[in-house]
Predict the 3D structure of the following.
Amino acid sequence: MQRTYICIDLKTFYASVECVERGLDPFSTNLVVADPSRGKGAICLAISPKMKMLGIRNRCRIFEIPPTIKYIIALPRMKKYIEYSADVYEIYLKYFSKEDIHPYSIDEAFIDVTHYLKLYKKTPIELAKTVMKDIFKTKGISATCGIGTNLYLCKIALDLTAKHSSDNIGYLDEEKYKKELWHHKPLSDFWQIGRGIEKRLNKMRIFDMYDLAHTEPERLYKEFGVNAEFLIDHSWGKESCTIADIKAYKPKSNSISNSQILFEDYTFEKARTVLKEMVEQGSLRLIENNLKTNSIQLYIGYSKDVIKATGGSQKLSEYTNVYSELIKEYLKLFDKTTNSQMSIRRIGISFNNVIETNNIQLNLFINQEKIEKERKLENTVNNIKNKMGKNSILRGINFTDGATAKIRNTLIGGHNGE
Protein backbone atom coordinates (compact mmCIF):
# COMPACT_ATOMS: atom_id res chain seq x y z
CA MET A 1 0.00 0.00 0.00
CA GLN A 2 1.34 3.42 -0.94
CA ARG A 3 1.74 5.64 2.09
CA THR A 4 1.24 9.39 2.33
CA TYR A 5 3.28 11.61 4.64
CA ILE A 6 3.16 15.29 5.44
CA CYS A 7 5.90 17.40 6.96
CA ILE A 8 4.70 20.64 8.59
CA ASP A 9 7.08 23.50 9.32
CA LEU A 10 6.14 26.58 11.36
CA LYS A 11 7.38 29.52 9.28
CA THR A 12 10.22 31.56 10.81
CA PHE A 13 8.99 30.16 14.11
CA TYR A 14 10.81 32.23 16.73
CA ALA A 15 10.25 35.50 14.86
CA SER A 16 6.58 34.66 14.25
CA VAL A 17 6.05 33.95 17.95
CA GLU A 18 7.60 37.28 18.88
CA CYS A 19 5.36 39.10 16.38
CA VAL A 20 2.23 37.31 17.66
CA GLU A 21 3.16 38.18 21.25
CA ARG A 22 3.41 41.84 20.23
CA GLY A 23 0.20 41.82 18.16
CA LEU A 24 2.19 42.38 14.96
CA ASP A 25 1.95 40.83 11.50
CA PRO A 26 5.21 38.96 10.73
CA PHE A 27 4.63 39.55 7.00
CA SER A 28 4.67 43.32 7.42
CA THR A 29 7.03 43.69 10.41
CA ASN A 30 10.83 43.86 10.40
CA LEU A 31 11.87 41.78 13.40
CA VAL A 32 14.92 39.69 14.28
CA VAL A 33 15.40 37.32 17.21
CA ALA A 34 18.89 37.86 18.58
CA ASP A 35 20.78 38.70 21.76
CA PRO A 36 22.35 42.17 21.20
CA SER A 37 24.46 41.75 24.35
CA ARG A 38 26.64 39.35 22.32
CA GLY A 39 27.68 42.20 20.02
CA LYS A 40 27.21 42.92 16.33
CA GLY A 41 28.48 39.44 15.52
CA ALA A 42 25.50 37.81 17.28
CA ILE A 43 23.60 35.34 15.10
CA CYS A 44 19.94 36.12 14.37
CA LEU A 45 18.12 32.93 15.37
CA ALA A 46 15.20 33.94 13.16
CA ILE A 47 14.05 36.84 11.03
CA SER A 48 10.48 37.73 10.10
CA PRO A 49 9.14 36.88 6.61
CA LYS A 50 9.10 40.61 5.81
CA MET A 51 12.89 40.76 6.36
CA LYS A 52 13.33 37.75 4.06
CA MET A 53 11.39 39.64 1.39
CA LEU A 54 13.97 42.41 1.71
CA GLY A 55 16.73 39.94 0.84
CA ILE A 56 18.07 39.36 4.36
CA ARG A 57 19.17 35.76 4.77
CA ASN A 58 18.04 33.67 7.69
CA ARG A 59 20.62 32.97 10.43
CA CYS A 60 22.56 36.10 9.45
CA ARG A 61 24.62 38.12 11.91
CA ILE A 62 23.42 41.50 13.15
CA PHE A 63 26.20 43.42 11.36
CA GLU A 64 25.11 41.87 8.04
CA ILE A 65 21.73 43.66 8.15
CA PRO A 66 21.95 46.86 6.05
CA PRO A 67 21.93 49.98 8.28
CA THR A 68 19.15 51.47 6.13
CA ILE A 69 16.68 48.83 7.37
CA LYS A 70 14.90 49.61 10.62
CA TYR A 71 13.88 46.58 12.66
CA ILE A 72 12.85 45.32 16.08
CA ILE A 73 15.31 43.15 18.04
CA ALA A 74 13.59 40.52 20.18
CA LEU A 75 15.61 38.74 22.85
CA PRO A 76 15.27 34.93 22.45
CA ARG A 77 12.71 33.40 24.84
CA MET A 78 13.19 29.65 24.55
CA LYS A 79 10.64 28.77 27.22
CA LYS A 80 7.99 30.70 25.30
CA TYR A 81 8.87 28.94 22.04
CA ILE A 82 8.66 25.54 23.72
CA GLU A 83 5.19 26.45 25.03
CA TYR A 84 4.02 27.40 21.53
CA SER A 85 5.52 24.20 20.08
CA ALA A 86 3.70 22.10 22.70
CA ASP A 87 0.43 23.88 21.87
CA VAL A 88 0.90 23.11 18.16
CA TYR A 89 1.58 19.46 19.01
CA GLU A 90 -1.78 19.43 20.84
CA ILE A 91 -3.39 20.61 17.59
CA TYR A 92 -1.81 17.66 15.75
CA LEU A 93 -3.29 15.33 18.37
CA LYS A 94 -6.78 16.60 17.52
CA TYR A 95 -6.40 14.97 14.10
CA PHE A 96 -3.81 12.20 14.43
CA SER A 97 -2.63 9.56 16.88
CA LYS A 98 0.73 10.23 18.56
CA GLU A 99 1.98 6.94 17.03
CA ASP A 100 1.72 8.59 13.61
CA ILE A 101 3.49 11.83 14.60
CA HIS A 102 7.27 12.30 14.71
CA PRO A 103 8.40 15.71 16.06
CA TYR A 104 11.55 16.43 14.06
CA SER A 105 12.43 19.71 15.76
CA ILE A 106 10.80 22.46 17.82
CA ASP A 107 9.07 23.81 14.69
CA GLU A 108 8.79 20.79 12.39
CA ALA A 109 6.96 17.44 12.46
CA PHE A 110 6.43 14.42 10.20
CA ILE A 111 2.98 12.82 10.17
CA ASP A 112 1.83 9.58 8.50
CA VAL A 113 -1.63 10.53 7.19
CA THR A 114 -2.19 7.36 5.12
CA HIS A 115 -5.18 6.07 7.09
CA TYR A 116 -6.64 9.49 7.86
CA LEU A 117 -7.44 10.44 4.28
CA LYS A 118 -10.33 7.98 4.15
CA LEU A 119 -11.39 8.80 7.71
CA TYR A 120 -11.72 12.53 7.01
CA LYS A 121 -12.72 12.05 3.36
CA LYS A 122 -10.06 14.54 2.26
CA THR A 123 -7.20 14.63 -0.20
CA PRO A 124 -3.69 15.07 1.27
CA ILE A 125 -3.70 18.76 0.30
CA GLU A 126 -7.16 19.32 1.83
CA LEU A 127 -6.10 17.65 5.08
CA ALA A 128 -2.87 19.65 5.20
CA LYS A 129 -4.80 22.89 4.69
CA THR A 130 -7.20 21.98 7.51
CA VAL A 131 -4.35 21.48 9.99
CA MET A 132 -2.46 24.57 8.82
CA LYS A 133 -5.58 26.74 9.17
CA ASP A 134 -6.15 25.39 12.68
CA ILE A 135 -2.56 26.28 13.66
CA PHE A 136 -2.99 29.82 12.33
CA LYS A 137 -6.42 30.29 13.93
CA THR A 138 -5.29 28.94 17.30
CA LYS A 139 -1.75 30.33 17.59
CA GLY A 140 -1.44 32.93 14.84
CA ILE A 141 1.50 31.06 13.28
CA SER A 142 1.70 30.43 9.52
CA ALA A 143 2.89 27.00 8.39
CA THR A 144 4.38 25.41 5.29
CA CYS A 145 3.76 21.78 4.34
CA GLY A 146 5.43 19.13 2.22
CA ILE A 147 3.49 16.07 1.06
CA GLY A 148 5.15 12.93 -0.26
CA THR A 149 4.85 9.20 -0.76
CA ASN A 150 7.71 8.62 1.68
CA LEU A 151 9.44 10.54 4.47
CA TYR A 152 12.25 11.75 2.24
CA LEU A 153 9.96 13.09 -0.47
CA CYS A 154 7.68 14.96 1.92
CA LYS A 155 10.74 16.65 3.46
CA ILE A 156 12.11 17.59 0.03
CA ALA A 157 8.66 18.85 -0.99
CA LEU A 158 8.70 21.06 2.10
CA ASP A 159 12.23 22.37 1.60
CA LEU A 160 12.31 22.84 -2.18
CA THR A 161 8.81 23.13 -3.64
CA ALA A 162 6.39 24.39 -0.95
CA LYS A 163 8.13 27.78 -0.72
CA HIS A 164 7.33 28.42 -4.41
CA SER A 165 3.65 27.47 -4.08
CA SER A 166 0.90 30.03 -3.51
CA ASP A 167 -0.72 27.85 -0.82
CA ASN A 168 2.63 27.00 0.88
CA ILE A 169 2.12 23.30 0.10
CA GLY A 170 4.38 21.12 -2.05
CA TYR A 171 3.80 17.56 -3.27
CA LEU A 172 6.22 14.95 -4.62
CA ASP A 173 6.08 11.33 -5.66
CA GLU A 174 9.02 9.48 -7.21
CA GLU A 175 8.19 10.41 -10.82
CA LYS A 176 7.48 14.07 -10.02
CA TYR A 177 10.72 14.20 -8.03
CA LYS A 178 12.76 12.93 -10.98
CA LYS A 179 10.99 15.21 -13.44
CA GLU A 180 11.29 18.42 -11.38
CA LEU A 181 14.34 18.01 -9.14
CA TRP A 182 16.79 15.62 -10.78
CA HIS A 183 18.71 18.58 -12.20
CA HIS A 184 18.29 20.92 -9.22
CA LYS A 185 21.51 22.51 -7.94
CA PRO A 186 23.25 22.76 -5.53
CA LEU A 187 23.17 19.28 -4.02
CA SER A 188 23.45 20.74 -0.52
CA ASP A 189 19.84 21.95 -0.88
CA PHE A 190 18.77 18.34 -0.46
CA TRP A 191 18.03 16.94 2.98
CA GLN A 192 20.99 15.13 4.58
CA ILE A 193 23.55 16.37 2.04
CA GLY A 194 25.82 18.89 3.74
CA ARG A 195 28.55 21.05 2.21
CA GLY A 196 31.21 18.44 2.96
CA ILE A 197 29.36 15.63 1.17
CA GLU A 198 28.56 17.98 -1.71
CA LYS A 199 32.27 18.78 -2.18
CA ARG A 200 33.16 15.08 -2.21
CA LEU A 201 30.44 14.39 -4.79
CA ASN A 202 31.58 17.33 -6.95
CA LYS A 203 35.11 15.91 -6.98
CA MET A 204 33.56 12.75 -8.45
CA ARG A 205 31.94 14.95 -11.16
CA ILE A 206 28.50 14.54 -9.56
CA PHE A 207 26.64 17.86 -9.52
CA ASP A 208 22.95 16.95 -9.27
CA MET A 209 20.65 14.07 -8.35
CA TYR A 210 20.56 12.83 -11.95
CA ASP A 211 24.34 12.46 -11.92
CA LEU A 212 24.13 10.68 -8.57
CA ALA A 213 21.43 8.29 -9.75
CA HIS A 214 23.48 7.34 -12.82
CA THR A 215 26.83 6.87 -11.10
CA GLU A 216 28.23 3.36 -10.72
CA PRO A 217 27.28 2.21 -7.17
CA GLU A 218 30.76 0.76 -6.66
CA ARG A 219 32.30 4.24 -6.92
CA LEU A 220 29.88 5.60 -4.31
CA TYR A 221 30.39 2.70 -1.89
CA LYS A 222 34.16 3.13 -2.21
CA GLU A 223 33.87 6.83 -1.28
CA PHE A 224 31.05 6.77 1.31
CA GLY A 225 30.90 3.19 2.61
CA VAL A 226 27.48 1.99 3.78
CA ASN A 227 26.15 5.58 3.64
CA ALA A 228 26.22 5.29 -0.15
CA GLU A 229 23.00 3.26 0.11
CA PHE A 230 21.08 6.31 1.39
CA LEU A 231 22.55 8.57 -1.30
CA ILE A 232 21.58 6.12 -4.05
CA ASP A 233 18.04 5.62 -2.72
CA HIS A 234 17.48 9.35 -2.29
CA SER A 235 18.75 10.10 -5.79
CA TRP A 236 15.81 8.02 -7.07
CA GLY A 237 13.37 9.51 -4.54
CA LYS A 238 13.20 6.29 -2.52
CA GLU A 239 13.09 5.91 1.29
CA SER A 240 12.19 2.69 3.10
CA CYS A 241 12.15 4.07 6.66
CA THR A 242 8.68 4.74 8.13
CA ILE A 243 7.52 6.57 11.25
CA ALA A 244 6.78 3.16 12.76
CA ASP A 245 10.46 2.24 12.20
CA ILE A 246 11.56 5.47 13.92
CA LYS A 247 9.31 4.77 16.91
CA ALA A 248 10.63 1.20 17.20
CA TYR A 249 14.32 2.12 16.89
CA LYS A 250 16.56 1.31 19.83
CA PRO A 251 20.25 2.26 19.66
CA LYS A 252 22.82 -0.49 20.18
CA SER A 253 24.71 1.69 22.63
CA ASN A 254 23.75 4.74 24.66
CA SER A 255 25.64 7.92 25.42
CA ILE A 256 25.07 11.24 27.17
CA SER A 257 26.65 14.31 25.62
CA ASN A 258 27.00 18.01 26.35
CA SER A 259 28.74 20.77 24.43
CA GLN A 260 28.95 24.53 24.50
CA ILE A 261 30.32 27.39 22.44
CA LEU A 262 32.08 29.72 24.85
CA PHE A 263 31.04 33.37 25.08
CA GLU A 264 34.57 34.49 24.12
CA ASP A 265 38.03 33.07 23.44
CA TYR A 266 39.23 31.12 26.50
CA THR A 267 42.72 30.37 27.72
CA PHE A 268 43.81 26.84 28.57
CA GLU A 269 43.19 27.36 32.32
CA LYS A 270 39.78 29.03 31.90
CA ALA A 271 38.67 26.24 29.58
CA ARG A 272 39.83 23.73 32.20
CA THR A 273 37.43 25.41 34.67
CA VAL A 274 34.51 25.06 32.25
CA LEU A 275 35.39 21.41 31.68
CA LYS A 276 35.15 20.76 35.43
CA GLU A 277 31.68 22.34 35.48
CA MET A 278 30.51 20.30 32.50
CA VAL A 279 31.74 17.03 34.00
CA GLU A 280 29.97 17.85 37.25
CA GLN A 281 26.69 18.48 35.42
CA GLY A 282 27.14 15.25 33.47
CA SER A 283 27.88 13.28 36.63
CA LEU A 284 24.71 14.59 38.31
CA ARG A 285 22.73 13.63 35.21
CA LEU A 286 24.11 10.08 35.28
CA ILE A 287 23.27 9.67 38.95
CA GLU A 288 19.78 11.12 38.54
CA ASN A 289 19.03 8.57 35.79
CA ASN A 290 20.69 5.66 37.64
CA LEU A 291 23.33 5.30 34.92
CA LYS A 292 27.08 4.69 34.76
CA THR A 293 29.74 4.92 32.04
CA ASN A 294 33.04 3.23 31.32
CA SER A 295 34.11 5.41 28.39
CA ILE A 296 34.59 9.18 28.10
CA GLN A 297 35.12 11.44 25.10
CA LEU A 298 36.42 15.02 24.82
CA TYR A 299 36.22 17.59 22.02
CA ILE A 300 38.13 20.89 22.02
CA GLY A 301 37.57 23.39 19.22
CA TYR A 302 39.86 26.38 18.80
CA SER A 303 39.10 30.04 18.01
CA LYS A 304 38.57 30.74 14.29
CA ASP A 305 39.51 27.09 13.60
CA VAL A 306 43.18 28.08 13.30
CA ILE A 307 44.14 24.49 14.11
CA LYS A 308 42.29 21.20 13.94
CA ALA A 309 40.11 20.26 16.91
CA THR A 310 41.70 18.04 19.54
CA GLY A 311 40.49 15.64 22.21
CA GLY A 312 39.83 11.92 22.00
CA SER A 313 38.29 9.09 23.96
CA GLN A 314 39.40 7.11 26.99
CA LYS A 315 38.23 3.74 28.30
CA LEU A 316 37.84 3.63 32.09
CA SER A 317 38.88 0.71 34.24
CA GLU A 318 35.42 0.56 35.88
CA TYR A 319 31.90 1.79 35.29
CA THR A 320 31.25 4.92 37.34
CA ASN A 321 29.05 8.00 37.70
CA VAL A 322 30.99 9.68 40.52
CA TYR A 323 32.35 13.16 39.81
CA SER A 324 35.74 12.70 41.51
CA GLU A 325 36.53 9.68 39.33
CA LEU A 326 35.22 11.16 36.09
CA ILE A 327 36.93 14.54 36.45
CA LYS A 328 40.27 12.88 37.18
CA GLU A 329 40.15 11.05 33.84
CA TYR A 330 38.82 14.07 31.92
CA LEU A 331 41.57 16.36 33.20
CA LYS A 332 44.21 13.79 32.23
CA LEU A 333 42.75 13.66 28.71
CA PHE A 334 42.43 17.45 28.50
CA ASP A 335 46.00 18.12 29.69
CA LYS A 336 47.39 15.46 27.36
CA THR A 337 45.62 16.46 24.14
CA THR A 338 44.83 20.20 24.36
CA ASN A 339 47.09 22.84 22.83
CA SER A 340 47.79 25.15 25.78
CA GLN A 341 49.00 28.00 23.54
CA MET A 342 45.83 28.40 21.47
CA SER A 343 42.55 30.17 22.32
CA ILE A 344 39.64 27.78 22.88
CA ARG A 345 36.04 28.43 21.75
CA ARG A 346 34.21 25.07 21.91
CA ILE A 347 34.13 22.25 24.46
CA GLY A 348 32.24 18.98 24.17
CA ILE A 349 32.10 15.93 26.43
CA SER A 350 30.40 12.57 26.08
CA PHE A 351 29.84 9.62 28.40
CA ASN A 352 29.72 6.51 26.21
CA ASN A 353 28.60 2.90 26.78
CA VAL A 354 26.08 4.11 29.36
CA ILE A 355 24.18 1.34 31.18
CA GLU A 356 21.92 1.08 34.20
CA THR A 357 23.66 0.87 37.58
CA ASN A 358 21.74 -2.29 38.48
CA ASN A 359 23.51 -4.20 35.70
CA ILE A 360 26.98 -3.63 37.17
CA GLN A 361 28.81 -6.13 39.31
CA LEU A 362 30.52 -4.69 42.41
CA ASN A 363 34.32 -4.51 42.43
CA LEU A 364 36.00 -5.78 45.58
CA PHE A 365 39.14 -3.73 44.91
CA ILE A 366 37.64 -0.24 45.26
CA ASN A 367 36.36 1.58 48.33
CA GLN A 368 32.61 1.10 47.89
CA GLU A 369 31.83 2.93 51.13
CA LYS A 370 33.63 6.07 49.97
CA ILE A 371 32.04 5.89 46.53
CA GLU A 372 28.56 5.43 47.99
CA LYS A 373 29.05 8.37 50.34
CA GLU A 374 29.93 10.68 47.43
CA ARG A 375 27.06 9.36 45.34
CA LYS A 376 24.56 10.04 48.15
CA LEU A 377 25.91 13.57 48.47
CA GLU A 378 25.49 14.16 44.74
CA ASN A 379 21.99 12.70 44.89
CA THR A 380 21.14 15.24 47.57
CA VAL A 381 22.56 18.03 45.41
CA ASN A 382 20.39 16.81 42.52
CA ASN A 383 17.26 16.81 44.67
CA ILE A 384 17.92 20.39 45.83
CA LYS A 385 18.55 21.58 42.25
CA ASN A 386 15.37 19.89 40.97
CA LYS A 387 13.28 21.43 43.73
CA MET A 388 14.82 24.89 44.10
CA GLY A 389 16.47 25.50 40.70
CA LYS A 390 19.85 24.73 39.14
CA ASN A 391 21.54 27.73 40.76
CA SER A 392 20.20 27.00 44.25
CA ILE A 393 23.38 25.14 45.14
CA LEU A 394 26.75 25.72 43.47
CA ARG A 395 30.38 24.70 43.88
CA GLY A 396 33.10 27.23 44.62
CA ILE A 397 34.46 26.68 41.10
CA ASN A 398 31.21 28.11 39.68
CA PHE A 399 32.25 31.54 41.02
CA THR A 400 35.76 31.54 39.56
CA ASP A 401 36.95 33.51 36.53
CA GLY A 402 35.73 31.92 33.31
CA ALA A 403 33.05 29.73 34.89
CA THR A 404 29.88 29.53 32.78
CA ALA A 405 27.55 27.16 34.64
CA LYS A 406 25.81 29.86 36.69
CA ILE A 407 24.85 31.76 33.53
CA ARG A 408 24.08 28.68 31.44
CA ASN A 409 21.77 27.31 34.13
CA THR A 410 19.41 30.16 33.23
CA LEU A 411 19.53 29.35 29.48
CA ILE A 412 17.65 26.87 27.31
CA GLY A 413 19.56 25.58 24.31
CA GLY A 414 22.25 28.16 24.98
CA HIS A 415 19.80 31.06 24.75
CA ASN A 416 17.68 33.14 27.09
CA GLY A 417 15.29 30.76 28.86
CA GLU A 418 12.57 33.25 29.81
Summary: The mean pLDDT is 89. The first strand starts at residue 5 and ends at 10. The chain is about 40% helix and 20% strand.
